[in-house]
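Minutes, project huddle
Topic: does the predicted pose make sense with biotin bound?
PN asked that the exact inputs be recorded in the minutes so nobody has to dig through chat later. Recorded below.
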Amino acid sequence: MERIKLESIDSTQSYARKELESLMTRAPLCITAEEQTKGRGQPGKSWYSPRGAGLYVTLLLAEHERTLPLSCLAQLFSLAVAEELENLGFASQLKWPNDILLAHTKVGGVLCEVVHQPGERMALILGLGLNVNATADQLKLVGSAATSLQIISGQQWEHEPLLQKICSSFLTLFSQMKQLGFVPFQKRYEKLLITLGQQITLPEGPALCEGVSGDGRLILRTPDGHIHLHHQALNK
Ligand code: BTN
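Predicted holo structure (tokens), as shared on screen:
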């Protein structure tokens, strides 16, 4: 996969969007930055991105609409990251649909955006923020609880090998998903799902988390026994 390495940028996601037309001809493309001055998290949130402390990555993929179940992209990307962390000896968990956790604390998150283009073409702009060598002092500046690979393991991690592993693992999962959908990944995702079998609270009230569906939605059982498939809209 071709690579664009940026020193400092507002956000690798915003960069991909701004330069979309020319970058699409180079997809699949991996864009990274050493630091982001306006890293974006889930809508309304920012992503704290100090220099050299984490992986700030955007993968740009050019796809055709009809073939893809878009609702499971964030789940697939976060699964690839969590499984790579497991391979490195971390006990990772997932919080549906975007968060990667270590020791019950967020270590990374993904942000999947889609831009529809003429014909049935579309750009998938898949962002990953992973706290790698961020220190506890740095992470105090994040609004909510956060951890890093270094805090959990007590050692520093090189960014490049980590990035290569995550990208190649995601691309493998992505090409399998294009053939088979999310079904082959359901059990793998559930194995790491932190809320599996637990009561969770939705704005509508409490519900029991029973797993993920074949298209990546969260399966919830409400107290009246009804099953709901909870889905998060993709960011446009
Ligand atoms: C989340 O809120 O959990 C998602 C965080 C996504 C952050 C990454 S860092 C690289 C890419 N560029 C951004 O501005 N955001 C994503």
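Observations noted during the meeting:
- The first strand starts at residue 2 and ends at 9.
- The first helix runs from residue 12 to 18.
No decisions taken; revisit at the next huddle.
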